[in-house]
Predict the structure.
Amino acid sequence: MHIRWKLRMAAAQREVWTGTQLRRLLAERAGLRLSSASVSALFTKEPAQVKLSTLLALCTALECTPNDLFDVDTTPVAQSASPTQTAAAPPAPARSVGGRSMPPL
């Protein structure tokens, strides 16, 4: 599974070419004031996480939907069995002594 961040493409399709322009739109249309560094990071890098309030502000400022801002590849990841991982053996059953079972440890 992979997520591809497309903010720069979505902005360019709306004639927003710089972080400064995006920062102004965020403030004017969505009321979100972000630092130049924060807007630049969103504009140039794929973020590890995005607050929902920031996502909403981006969609409001660019008049788009979250689908315009990222693609999600939901192809299942194949997992191979690792030879170093072995299944843990189940605990041994309690032994009976003189016909009686032992209390659990």
